[in-house]
Structures are given as C-alpha cells and as structure tokens.
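User: Need the bound-state model for glutamine:
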Amino acid sequence: MRDAGIEAPQREARLLMAVASGLTTSDLIIRGHQPVPASLADTFHAIVARRAAREPFQHIARTASFFGLDLVSDRRALVPRADSEVVVEAALALLPEGRDARVVDLGTGSGCLLAALLATRTELTGIGLDASSDAADLARENVERLGLGNRARILTGSWTEWTGWADVDLVISNPPYINAATIASLDPEVRLHDPLDALDGGEDGLAAYREIVMLARAGLRAGVPIVFEIGFDQRSSVSGLMADAGFIGLGSSRDLAGNDRVVWAFQAES
Ligand code: GLN
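Assistant: Bound-state model below.
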C-alpha cells in the first residue's frame, strides 16, 4: 500500500483487517498471536487490493464518521469530509436554539449536513434535495438509520425545479465547486471514486453558487440565511456574488486546517 501512495499504510492495514474480520483493532491486538484463517486472509488481501487501487477507506468499510454520527458511505455520493463539519457548526450558530425551524440542504449527497443538523437539534425539520436519485437513496438510508426519517424528507430533483424556497428558515449547501482545470489534479480517491457531478463546479467552479444565489434571492423570505461550503480560495468570489445579488450580513469561517471553508449571508427585504 505504501507503493500505491497510501500515507499511513500500516495504520490503514490494521483498520482494513478490522473491517475484514469484523473485530475491533484492540481485539486484533489481543488475538495477534493467533493464526489467521485462510478465508479471512483472502478477504483481507482482496480489500487491501481495493485500497491500493485508491478506493476510499470509507467505501470499503461502507461507513464514514461525520459530526459524531456513523453514516453509510459508498460511491453514490461524496465521502463526508471532516472539513464540512465547520459548515454544520456555522449553520447551528445561525439557528436560535429551541425554536422550530425548517432547513433545506441543496445537493445533500450522503445527507451528512442535514443529518448532523437534525441530530444535534431535535426542534429542526428539513429537506435534503439531490439531482442524483442514487445520492437521494443513500441520504434516505442515512436519515432513516439515524432515526431522523420523521423529520427529514429526501427528494430527488434539481434546485432549479424546487419550489419550496419561501417555506424554509435556513439553506445549507456543499455544492460542486471544483473548477474544470483542477479536477484532474484531485487525489485518486476523489477523482476516481467520488461522483464527478458532486465536484464539477464548471469552468470557474462557481456555477452552482450562481444558480442557487439567484434562485434564493427570488424565493427566500427576508432574514433567511444561506450557508455555503466553499473551496479554500473562493471566499471573496462567493461572498462577492452574494453581495452583488443583494444578500446582507456576510460572514465566513475556516476549517481546522485554517482554510476558508464557509460563507453565509442573509436575504434582504425585497
Ligand atoms: N472538498 C471536496 C474536495 O476537495 C470538494 C467538494 C465539492 O466540490 N463540494 O474534493
């Protein structure tokens, strides 16, 4: 796996053995001296080969941890990223605690942002929208497994056709934002195994933001915020297009690596 460019091959090999055997990594240490049955060795070698082909660990394990939740993760949607947890935190800070509110997650993918919001605040309900029916199926599976199915509705469809803008109290979105020139240089885990539609933000990476901002400006009630995940170099361009459209109260925050990762702004009076 080191030859395949995996950064921490021994650590990942231990975790893959845990996946193959169904045991925890500490059980594996305790049983370390016991011989490995041939069938387990075969399973292990097969999944090591998948990881060496740079399939994301989360797809092999079929699970990803996000905001303290265990989510199902596979090739139907982007693997939930730790960086996106700050998007959830920013949205929570904008929602007064204890007050019922309806959120919409545009391009919900695995459903990670919506699930994290609803799991943290029981007073929230929400809609997760995705143009991919595969992604919507995955999101539905996730909210149901987490017991959030009665507060989350997952819909297949594009935000251009969605008509519920006037009914929501917060918009959250991690839209596709990678520009055409950058796609080819993404890590193989992302480039080869995440759905391209979830990454491709058009020529300048801003196509989805432009569409959403325009639709939101026409449809949201005054005072409703949009919270966007952004690429590390998109803070001024995304806040610029929100300001140009007439959104007010611009804010931003960074991820754990110190990169700009979130921007938000509020619908003004019309
Ligand atoms: N952060 C993701 C990446 O680096 C991109 C996510 C997106 O386009 N929304 O691959």
